[in-house]
Amino acid sequence: MKLLSKYYRANILATIIVVLLSSGCYYFMIHYILVTELDDAIAEEEHEVIDYAKKNGSLPDPSNSSDQQVIYKDVFKGSARKLSTIELYSKEDNESITSRQLVFPLVVSGKNYDIYVIRSQEETEDVIKLILGITLVVVVLLLLILFIINRFVLRRLWKPFNSTLFQLKQFDLSGKNKLALEQTRINEFNELNRAVSIMAGHVSQEYETLKKFTENASHEMQTPLAIINSKLDLLIQGENINEQQMEQLQAIYNALEKLAKMNQSLLLLTRIENNQFNDIENISLDSAVKEKLFQFDELIAARKLNVKTNIHPANINCSKLLLDILLSNLLHNSIRYNVEQGEVFISLENKILIVSNTSAIPALNEKQIFQRFYRHSETKQPGNGLGLSIVKQICNDSGYTIQYLFYDGRHEFSILF
To answer: Taking the complete model, does pTM exceed 0.85, yes or no?
Structure first.
């Protein structure tokens, strides 16, 4: 969940809870104030009746208006003073009306009376409902305004952060996509941008140092490797070498050849990362695939492999050398790591190249398959684990998309050119 979405939900939820609680408190407070005012008016009527009885020695005339009734009842013993809310049936309105009723005792001319003062509470309830309705409208408007602020204003406030995040996702150590962070009016985002810029600078510097070291080391290793190789050739051609010495020299020669190939692969990776292949031209991809298959004819025959193809015409703009290396590594792997009398399937359609092959090796680790020197633990064929790294680097450099799948005992690589 995005931070803004989480903030929206927390903010709206907190607002709703606060509004509901405050609305409830507000309702009961208004209700209490208005009912208290109504009770004060009833108490005032009580005082008027008592004052009239004391002054005149008799009760005033009963009243029965639309909003108030004053009723006298001659009783043997007066009731205790009581103020309550009651429901009275109104014949005119044909419904029950909520009213406040005050009952208090009064002795007039030696007689006991219960005085009933009843006042309608409907107007008070109407006022409360009106106030509650206005409050709800204000709450809805408040929530709407908060939603608009969260939706648009906060999104604009977070725009610099999203821009920084986008650039971090696009950041490329090879220098194709450098960071260009914008200056903002928000101090925290400016501090974040400065920290990111410093971090990116350090990472780029370390990467350049490592790349130069790899390139220089690969170049420097070529001369001693060539010298060692020539000396081994002289030793192997010597006459005074027994069989055991010959086997040891051959083992050294094989190890040296493996080291030389690894050195060439690392140098090739460095050259690709440095964008040193600029010989872009229009190439017939189908012809290149067929030509590369023809080059592997003898190896395919030696492994007794069944090759099935579904190749359609397709042209792409790319480096001829890089395409040759890419196809060579993919096809060579499909042959080399296949089983005897296995199958290789090659498809080229809509500029999508698919190379799949049967194999005794289980599924490769999808997270590590294109990393340098990665080899499956059950791989028995010799190799340096750089072939697929080179393929991946060529795809990245050329803007191609490569994917790996494993199903039914088959390894499949697909490239979208």
So the answer is: no
